[in-house]
Amino acid sequence: MRETARALGRLVRRQPLGAAGGLIVLALIVIAALAPRLAPHGPKETGFAPYLAPSAEFPMGTDQLGRDVLSRVIWGARLSLYVGLVSVVFGITAGALWGAVTAYLGGAADTGSQRVVDSVMALPPIILALALMAALGQSVNNVIIALVVLLTPTAARTVRSIALGIVASPYMESAQAIGASNWRIISRHLIPNCMAGYIVLVTTNVSYAIVVEASLSFIGAGAPPDEPSWGGMLTAGIQALETAPWMLFFPGVAISLAVFGLNLFGDSIRDVTDPRLRGGLG
Amino acid sequence: MTASKALRLLAALALIAVFAPPAAQAQDKPRPGGILTWFDYGDPGRLDVHAESPLVVQQATAGIFSGLLHYDPDDPAKIVGDLAERWTVSPDGKTYTFYLRKGVKWHDGQPFSADDVKASFDRILGKDFQSPKCGASLKPMVAAVEMVDAGTVQFRLRFPAAPFIPSVASAWCRVAAKHILAKYGDLNQPEAQVGTGPFKFKKYERGSVIEWEKNPNYFIPGLPYLDGVKQFILVGGPTQLAAAKAGKIMLWDAWPPMRKTQADELARARQDVDIYQASINTIFLIYLNSKKPPFDNVDMRKAVNLAIDRQELVAKALEGAGVPCAILDPKLAGDFALPLEEVNKIPGCRQPKDGDIAEAKKLVEKHHPNGVDIEIAVRSVGNYVDRAQLVIAQLRKIGIRGTLKTHESAAGYAAFGKGDFTVIASQDRSMDVNDPSGVFHIAYTTEGGSNYGRMSDPKVDELAERALKESNKDKRKQAYWELQRYILTRGDTATVAVAWVEGWFFKDKKVQNYKPGLTTYDNNTFMKVWLSP
User: Fold this and answer.
1) Which carries the bigger pLDDT value, residue B167 or residue B15?
2) Is ipTM over 0.85?
3) Taking Cα atoms as reference points, which of A40, A47, A45 lies closest to residue A74?
4) Helix, strand, or coil here: B169?
């Protein structure tokens, strides 16, 4: 326990921004997990007067339909985190496996798969996401599917480059020389050695996924409008910019804080895991 | 100055004052030229004014076609001849004869004749032709259309019908060229927009802009004053308001109206506009699909009719600008409307809602003890999405859990027309004619052009037809009261009347001689509109 506290203290001293980011991420997780307890009202409850300015009763005011903005921002954390984490875990994991396996196999499998990656990455991400949402229909889970499609090729490309270095290393050659099966080499040697890159990809892409979800919801192609999505709340806020600026301000701050925290945290994870930068931690 | 000189000077000044044109009079003289900028709330996609019902189709084609009759641009309450110079009615009230203008030419130079009128109305009245506006209002009344000679057309009615003339004057009953119908098969393509109206169809860029240009051979010499009209396709309230604030559009006279907060925002941004509050003869409806579960069940429809809080929807979605629950608005339909005091005591309409919600919940529990999940559809135009969210919140209270499905405007119409929905959370229907019959023949009768819920109640059909045929005003009023009472008290209709919509509109002070029509569809030809410097 004391050791953990000491390590944490060291982290705070040497990576203060990362620690601040971690704190924001932790707060985000706590808010998302405890949303039903923390939110004073239901996120879809319309029983109040519309456009009420922030007050003691409604600290973030009410929106155009008389919903409590604070409750929606709190529930929005849950939706954003759910979309961010699930899409990133699925997308980056699928991409990482794809990249690692094709790098190991090499030849036509690698070349062919990289051309598929090229094709998908050639499309502007938001256009691709919009097209997918148009085809799939509006729902939170379809946003996740669209994000998985966006994230997978990027992860495949990045992890492949890491894996190519590992495949060329002497211990991989030794494993092949002693007759280890492909499955054993990939699962025991290749994938574990790609884990650092994988973790960095996961941490840095959660914020990207949250922003894409918010962007899709903002243009009306993401989560259904009644879901408490921060991006969707911005759309409603734009329509009442002069009448009720709090409708725009609070979800905007929530998105910025979440992305800021996740980026700081992700950067520090990268610093910690990158051997070239590891000296920084001492 | 002598007294006589002073008197002469005064006399001269008096003469100048009497004979010189006053500044206002000079200002009132129409000035030719200029382009009027306007907007459509969505992309019409299809342009067949006979076959379509969205306002945007009407807006896109309003200045292109003429009708036999139309509402007088100088006095929009008055019906006057358009392509018909005059008309007569037989003593039994069942035969109308229209005498057509001579020398009228189509935009492509072909001569106009009674043959075109017959071809148009034969198409509109065709048994298998879906004409949700003009056809829906005329089919119950008209038995046949006959060409007497090249300049005369006769309409034979099934019965003497008071709404016949207003229906013919509707902006949806436009006359198309027979040769164009033969060439293209329909009026959907921009190339088929060949009319006799004051403007020619110039350009249609999908999703962007529709342009008309002046028809130099218009049959009223000297008109139109404008060189053209440019309609931007602006989807979504923020885009529309931003365009208005930036001065990109000169007129906001059609659906969707601005809400109070938007009107206030515009007033702060522009001082060169006149902002006014008005009704646009439009009713906000919710549709339940009576042919699909769960709303093929009478109890489930009753539950929704009881649970919908019309007053909350008006207060929040329309920012108070609407008449909740009425099937006919007393401000528009006068005595034909059931008094609001009576309407507001009927279950579903009365306040407070607690009793009705408890009753509705019981009805839902009877058939779905654990509640029911449904899809709630809405076109993403106007503030329909906001309205839908309120509807979803209200239905959740009685155990109906809705998931919102949004449609692009034209795709929504296509889906609703095919019955591909469970609930339409919000659909405004504008009246084609300023007559109490309109709303029933649009939304409530079996053959109603916008009876999306596909409800068929023989008693509604019978009462609507009886009221339509009644020529005595008092008896007609009683018939409409009976019809409204029947629909409201039975409480299982698939077309739930939420409110008559009011809202805010604006006109740039440069736009002269524009008078809003009695319905949102009428008087949009801009034939007499001009722009001051």
Assistant:
1) B167
2) no
3) A40
4) helix
What's the half-sphere exposure (Cβ side, CA atoms, 13 Å) at B355? 8
Q: Are B227 and B36 in contact (CB under 8 A)?
A: no
A123 vs B487 pLDDT, higher one: B487
DSSP code of residue B174: E
Residue B173: name the closest of B526, B521, B461 by CA: B521
pLDDT one-digit tens code per residue, B220-232: 999 999 999 999 9
A75: Cα separation from own chain's centroid: 17
Residue B428 sits at φ, ψ, to 5 deg, of: -85, 135
Q: What amino acid occupies position B170?
A: S
- A156 in helix, strand or coil? helix
CA distance A25 to chain B (A): 30
Q: Is B396 in Cβ contact with A226 (below 8 Å)?
A: no
Q: How far is CA A199 from the centre of its chain?
A: 12
Residues of B within 8 A of A236 (CB-CB) are: 386
Residue A211: band (very low, low, confident or very high) from pLDDT cuts 50, 70, 90: very high
Q: What is the pLDDT of residue B21?
A: 45
Q: pLDDT tens digits, residue range B26-61? A: 457 899 999 999 999 999 999 999 999 899 999 999
| Vertex B47: Cα angle to B43 and B48 (nearest 5) | 145
CB contact under 8 A, B392 and A45: no
Assess contact for B234 and B245: CB atoms under 8 A: no
Residue of B nearest to A237 (CA): B238
How close is the nearest chain B Cα to the Cα of A218, in Å? 12
Rounded distance, CA A51 to CA A62, Å?
5
The pair of three-digit structure tokens given for residue B437, joined into one six-digit string: 């019959």
Q: Is the pLDDT of residue B16 over 50?
A: no
Strand order in the sheet with B84-89: B84-89, B95-100, B152-157, B142-149
| Interface touch A220/B406, C-beta < 8 Å | yes
Query: Which residues are CB-neighbours of B211 under 8 A, at least 6 positions away?
Result: B202, B203, B204, B228, B229, B230, B231
Strand partners, B284: B428, B499
**Optimal mutation site among B385, B387, B391, B420, interface A, most CBs of chain A within 10 A:** B385
The answer to whether B60 touches B47, Cβ cutoff 8 Å, is: yes
How crowded is residue A271: how many other Cβ atoms within 10 Å of its Cβ?
Answer: 19
- Residues of A near B (Cβ–Cβ under 8 Å) read 44-46, 50-51, 64-66, 137-139, 220, 224-226, 236, 238-240, 242-243
Instruction: List the one residue out of A162, A25, A32 whose CA is nearest residue A103.
Output: A162
Residue-level pLDDT at B366: 97
Distance from CA of A89 to the nearest CA of B (A): 26
Interface size between A and B, measured as CB pairs under 8 A:
59
Distance CA B214, CA B198 (A): 6
Q: Per the CB < 8 Å rule, is B404 touching A66?
A: no
What tokens appear for B30 in the block? Answer: 């129409």
Residue B392 sits at the chain A interface (C-beta within 8 Å): yes
Q: B388, A226: Cβ pair inside 8 Å?
A: yes
Q: What is the DSSP string of A72-117?
A: HHHHHHHHHHHHHHHHHHHHHHHHHHHHHHHHHH-HHHHHHHHHHH
Residue A200: pLDDT over 90: no
Judging contacts by C-beta atoms under 8 Å, the chain B residues touching residue A135 are: none
Q: Token pair for residue B137?
A: 């209002």
Q: Which residues contact A8 (CB under 8 A, 6 or more apart)?
A: A19
Position B177, amino acid: A
> Binning pLDDT at 50, 70 and 90, where does residue B338 land?
very high
Q: How far is A254 from chain B (nearest CA, A)?
A: 22
Q: In angstroms, what separates the C-alpha of B102 from chain A's closest C-alpha?
A: 51
Q: Which chain B residue's Cα is nearest to A42?
A: B393
